[in-house]
Design a protein that fits this description.
This protein is of the alpha+beta class. The chain is built from two helices and three strands; from the N terminus they run H-H-E-E-E. A three-stranded antiparallel β-sheet has the order 1-2-3.
C-alpha cells in the first residue's frame, strides 16, 4: 500500500500539535479577571442594587433593578430565606424558586 508522503506528514504534524495542546498547562496569573485557587467558590448572593431597590419599601412592593448592561428587571421586594432580614428585589420570574423555610 502506497502512502502519500505529504498528506501523511501533514496528518502526523497536526496530530502531534493537537496532542501537545491537550496537555498544556493553563496560563498562570490572573487572566480575564479570574484567579485559580483551591478554595471553594463563595456564593455571592443578590447584588447590592437589589437590596437598594427595596430601601423604604415593605414586603411585596414592586421594585426595579438596573443591570450593569443597562437592562431593567422588574421584581417584588422579599425577605431572603437565609436569615438576612433586609428586603431584596427578586425578579418576578424567580419568585417561585424563593421559598422561606417554615
Amino acid at each position: 500500500m502506497a502512502v502519500r508522503t505529504p498528506s501523511f506528514i501533514s496528518f502526523a504534524l497536526v496530530s502531534v500539535f493537537m496532542a501537545s495542546t491537550a496537555f498544556a498547562e493553563p496560563p498562570s496569573g490572573n487572566q480575564q479577571g479570574y484567579e485559580r485557587t483551591n478554595e471553594p467558590a463563595e456564593r455571592r448572593g443578590p447584588p447590592q442594587e437589589a437590596f437598594d431597590a427595596c430601601n423604604d419599601k415593605v414586603e411585596d412592593d414592586s421594585c426595579e433593578v438596573e443591570t450593569p448592561r443597562g437592562h431593567v428587571i422588574s421584581g417584588v421586594c422579599k425577605v431572603p430565606p437565609r436569615g438576612n432580614e433586609s428586603l431584596v428585589c427578586v425578579p418576578k420570574d424567580r419568585l417561585d424558586r424563593m421559598k422561606r423555610p417554615e
